[in-house]
């Protein structure tokens, strides 16, 4: 067991996971399974975005689903109403979510903790209302049809499920790679310092606003990327993409997998998407299980699967040292008692 | 080093710090004492820039930092600790300290994306700085332990190290010896003397009188936001106003 | 002119409901510093409990209201004991996520039993009063009077009883309250119970002129948050004043500007206010 645990910490485990993802379409029983996996990957990209602002920076962003929907709508509307082809619209979707993320961030990130969460909850709802009511722009409840699929420059046809799966996988790998690099960099450490506390971070000479806005814009861009891929995959979107429940779903994926970790968002998202898929009856009532699960997780396992595993591994390694130290400190405590007496 | 002129901070009509003027000299241990609620922590928050004063001036080596944001003040060389320092519990001591040198580095998002040479150099510098600070406070041996697994006294030292990693000239220590036993208190006092010996200026808030009287070069006494006395430990001990304030309101005087 | 008065009545009705919901939210925030995202779900459960008691058990409207208030109060206390109490020393992000967990659970549970359809709660007060051309449906009058009575009763409770006084003391200073030996657990449970009662009654009062469905709490809770930010988080008069401001803004905005966008008014207002004053409209200076 210990050996297996150690193995999971090596780069080899990463490459095995990637290899599995690469051959998955061959292992899958049918195209539908590939489709499900591709959609899980799309959500995972968005969850990585949430992980930046909420996991690393410690700011609970409840508008994340809204930014996902903005990415999807930007691509959808540009391609269906304005005749843009996929890739320019795709870039526009990223620019749009980054730009709006910047604007929302400038206003909302001055707010602390609860105020920020409440504010973003309202921003998410405004996004939903606009998509639902602003019919001239968004078609209202009817939604957007005939969204362009990504074109493969004559090389591949992304309207087929399997090529699309690999496209999503490529973006996912990039998203995770960047997340890993970010988390180990000085910038990632800066975000974590902000999570530890605004005042402490400031007293370390960290410019709070600049770093929080950067984290927020990164997170909304991830959301926009996921949203745009989603629109290119399903080709038909509606205001429900901005439903607050999507944000809640993503929070659940993040918490189950491990908030603030690198592998957590992937494990949480893929795991839960497959569990809900295989237990179809769960689809409608999944929240009866997810709700209490969220509560139990924050009370007992606030660090999710990955975080708990890492903690366990760390203690396995430190055990001999730690025991020795505990005995040493017991000894000093004993001498203190003696000297006091 | 640090010159305070008529510093006042009002919170909704109440003066938390009222017309305090004082000079703290470089390379000395300066202590601020006073009963609970005397405005000591507020005073620190004003100096470090977390709060903006209502009136008065703060000069750091002749530079007016009164209206400066906290992160700017830190860059000018003011490091500080808090009564409780929230650290990332599930990360190693070293990982927690590396960010301390962030303010002396400039790498941004682009550097992360291309893993630039500058980023690599700066990360190495930050890591070295963290090790140096850890070594200074005498904790090199717990480098790889999680914060959650170290003792209360070690946490205090890690908080010191974090402040030291910012390359400060002046360190503000808020109750550095709270919650540690007498033996460890002595150790922390030694550490502060070591900081001064290495060219730093120390300014601390403390309730432990024995410690203060034994090591401070200068003491300022605050009561209800006002400075009621300043001087050497000997002067403070015999000052009737101080005795009055302490005997009247605070049990710590007995300690 | 008459239409104008009609909007005043509408504003008062909406303001009363929003005020009651916001009052519970602000009390909980003031004492425990928890932004209870599940409060809207308690409101929704309140409406469904009244619906259940009236439609399935055939009890009278008033009895249903009392029963629903009792059930939701117990539910709120359970939330405090089982969820928020164990999390009292956790990082601030945890209690918010836990509150979201409760919200998701309650909604899914109600949907499992009653489905996602819209339902209507009938009320014995279906008459319409006509004051010289000014038309007031009885139920709306009941809402306004009911809210007024509840707020007055709450004030009496907080000012005149021992436990009420401790709630106020704790809202002002948590640490201080511990020093003078207040049983913080009892106060916390009491506060949650009150917030549950207020939510259930508000829902039962409003349901006859609105619809009952599992997602009915979403808009209400978000508006309640806007209200308590407007009025200062933790402030009782602020919640009532904020409720009226939003109620009137919606009634008049919906009538004179656009019905489609009336729900956006509250959130637009919040965005503008927080952009200018990050600490809220009536909040005290620093902190």
Automatic annotation (TrEMBL), chain A:
The chain crosses the membrane at residues 12-28, 34-53, 84-107, 114-131, 163-180, 213-238, 250-275, 287-305. Keywords: Cell membrane, Membrane, Transmembrane, Transmembrane helix. It is found in: Cell inner membrane. Signal peptide: none annotated. One of its GO terms (cellular component) is plasma membrane. It is a multi-pass membrane protein. GO terms for molecular function: branched-chain amino acid transmembrane transporter activity. InterPro entries: ABC_transp_permease, LivM-like. Its main location: membrane. This is Amino acid/amide ABC transporter membrane protein 2, HAAT family (TC 3.A.1.4.-).
TrEMBL record, chain B:
The lineage of its organism: Bacteria, Pseudomonadati, Pseudomonadota, Gammaproteobacteria, Pseudomonadales. Residues 2-249 form the ABC transporter domain. One of its GO terms (biological process) is L-valine import across plasma membrane. One of its GO terms (cellular component) is plasma membrane. GO terms for molecular function: ATP binding; ATP hydrolysis activity; L-isoleucine transmembrane transporter activity; L-phenylalanine transmembrane transporter activity; L-valine transmembrane transporter activity. It holds the Pfam family BCA_ABC_TP_C. Gene3D superfamilies: P-loop containing nucleotide triphosphate hydrolases (3.40.50.300). Coiled coil: none annotated. Keywords: ATP-binding, Nucleotide-binding, Transport. It comes from Marinobacter zhejiangensis. SMART domains: AAA (SM00382). This is Branched-chain amino acid transport system ATP-binding protein.
From TrEMBL, chain C:
Belongs to the binding-protein-dependent transport system permease family. LivHM subfamily. It holds the Pfam family BPD_transp_2. It comes from the Bacteria. Keywords: Amino-acid transport, Cell membrane, Membrane, Transmembrane, Transmembrane helix, Transport. This is Amino acid/amide ABC transporter membrane protein 1, HAAT family. The chain crosses the membrane at residues 12-31, 61-84, 96-114, 141-158, 187-213, 225-249, 255-276. It is a multi-pass membrane protein. GO terms for cellular component: plasma membrane. It comes from Marinobacter zhejiangensis. PANTHER family: ABC TRANSPORTER PERMEASE PROTEIN (PTHR11795:SF452), BRANCHED-CHAIN AMINO ACID TRANSPORT SYSTEM PERMEASE PROTEIN LIVH (PTHR11795). InterPro entries: ABC_transp_permease (IPR001851), BCAA_transport_permease (IPR052157).
């Amino acid at each position: 067991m210990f050996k297996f645990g150690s193995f999971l910490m090596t780069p080899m485990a990463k490459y095995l996971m990637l290899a599995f993802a690469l051959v998955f379409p061959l292992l899958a029983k049918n195209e539908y399974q590939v489709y499900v996996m591709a959609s899980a990957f799309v959500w995972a990209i968005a969850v990585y975005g949430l992980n930046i602002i909420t996991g690393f920076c410690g700011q609970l962003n409840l508008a994340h689903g809204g930014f996902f929907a903005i990415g999807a709508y930007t691509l959808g509307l540009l391609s269906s109403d304005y005749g843009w082809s996929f890739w320019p619209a795709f870039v526009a979707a990223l620019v749009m979510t980054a730009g709006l993320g910047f604007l929302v961030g400038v206003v909302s990130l001055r707010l602390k903790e609860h105020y920020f969460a409440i504010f973003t909850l309202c921003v998410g709802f405004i996004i939903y209302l606009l998509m639902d009511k602003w019919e001239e722009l968004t078609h209202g409840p009817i939604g957007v049809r005939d969204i362009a699929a990504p074109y493969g420059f004559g090389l591949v046809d992304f309207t087929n499920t399997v090529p699309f799966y690999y496209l999503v996988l490529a973006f996912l790998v990039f998203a995770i790679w960047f997340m890993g690099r970010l988390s180990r960099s000085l910038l990632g450490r800066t975000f974590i310092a902000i999570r530890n506390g605004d005042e402490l971070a400031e007293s370390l000479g960290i410019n709070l606003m600049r770093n929080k806005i950067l984290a927020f814009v990164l997170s909304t861009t991830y959301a926009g990327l996921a949203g745009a891929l989603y629109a290119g995959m399903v080709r038909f979107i509606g205001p429900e993409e901005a439903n607050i429940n999507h944000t809640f779903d993503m929070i659940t994926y993040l918490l189950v997998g491990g908030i603030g970790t690198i592998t957590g968002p992937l494990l949480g998202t893929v795991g839960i998407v497959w569990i809900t898929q295989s237990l179809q009856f769960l689809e409608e009532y999944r929240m009866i299980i997810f709700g209490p699960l969220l509560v139990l997780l924050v009370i007992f396992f606030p660090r999710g699967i990955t975080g708990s595993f890492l903690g366990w591994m760390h203690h396995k390694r430190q055990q001999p040292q730690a025991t020795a130290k505990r005995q040493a400190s017991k000894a000093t405590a004993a001498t203190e008692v003696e000297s006091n007496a | 080093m640090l010159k305070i002129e008529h510093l006042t901070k009002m919170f909704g009509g109440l003066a938390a710090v009222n017309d305090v003027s004082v000079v703290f000299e470089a390379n000395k241990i300066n202590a601020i004492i006073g009963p609970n609620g005397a405005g000591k922590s507020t005073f620190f928050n004003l100096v470090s820039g977390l709060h903006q004063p209502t009136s008065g001036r703060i000069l750091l080596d002749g530079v007016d930092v009164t209206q400066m944001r906290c992160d700017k003040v830190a860059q000018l060389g003011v490091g500080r600790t808090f009564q409780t320092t929230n650290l990332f519990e599930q990360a190693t001591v070293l990982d927690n300290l590396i960010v301390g040198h962030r303010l002396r580095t400039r790498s941004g998002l682009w550097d992360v994306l291309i893993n630039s040479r500058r980023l690599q150099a700066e990360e190495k510098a930050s890591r070295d700085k963290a090790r140096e600070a850890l070594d200074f406070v005498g904790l090199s041996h717990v480098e790889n332990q999680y914060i959650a697994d170290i003792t209360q006294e070690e946490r205090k030292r890690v908080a010191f190290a974090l402040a030291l990693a910012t390359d400060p000239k002046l360190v503000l220590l808020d109750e550095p010896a709270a919650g540690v036993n007498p033996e460890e208190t002595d150790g922390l006092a030694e550490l502060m003397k070591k900081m001064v010996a290495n060219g730093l200026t120390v300014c601390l808030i403390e309730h432990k009188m024995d410690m203060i009287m034994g090591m401070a070069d200068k003491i300022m006494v605050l009561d209800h936001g006002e400075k009621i006395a300043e001087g050497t430990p000997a002067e403070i001990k015999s000052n009737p106003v101080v005795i009055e304030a302490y005997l009247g309101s605070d049990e710590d005087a007995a300690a | 002119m008459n239409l104008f008065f009609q909007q005043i009545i509408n504003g008062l009705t909406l303001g009363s409901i929003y005020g009651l919901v916001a009052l519970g939210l602000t009390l909980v925030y003031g004492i425990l510093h928890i932004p209870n995202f599940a409060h809207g779900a308690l409101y929704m459960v309140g409406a469904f409990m009244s619906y259940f008691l009236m439609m399935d058990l055939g009890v009278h409207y008033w009895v249903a209201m009392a029963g629903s208030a009792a059930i939701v109060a117990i539910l709120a206390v359970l939330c405090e004991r089982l969820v928020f109490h164990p999390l009292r020393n956790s990082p601030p992000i945890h209690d918010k996520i836990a509150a979201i967990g409760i919200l998701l659970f309650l909604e899914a549970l109600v949907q499992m039993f009653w489905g996602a359809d819209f339902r209507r709660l009938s009320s014995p007060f279906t008459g319409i009063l006509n004051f010289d051309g000014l038309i007031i449906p009885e139920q709306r009058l009941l809402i306004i009077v009911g809210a007024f009575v509840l707020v007055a009763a709450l004030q009496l409770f907080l000012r005149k009883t021992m436990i009420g006084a401790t709630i106020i003391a704790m809202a002002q200073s948590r640490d201080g309250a511990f020093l003078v030996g207040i049983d913080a657990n009892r106060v916390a449970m009491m506060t949650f119970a009150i917030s549950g009662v207020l939510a259930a009654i508000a829902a039962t009062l409003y349901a006859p002129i609105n619809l009952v469905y599992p997602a009915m709490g979403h808009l209400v809770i978000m508006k309640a948050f806007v209200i308590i930010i407007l009025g200062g988080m933790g402030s009782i008069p602020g919640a009532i004043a904020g409720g009226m401001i939003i109620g009137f803004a919606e009634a008049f905005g919906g009538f004179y500007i656009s019905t489609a966008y009336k729900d956006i008014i509250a959130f637009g207002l919040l965005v503008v206010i927080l952009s200018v004053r990050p600490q809220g409209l009536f909040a005290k200076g620093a902190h």
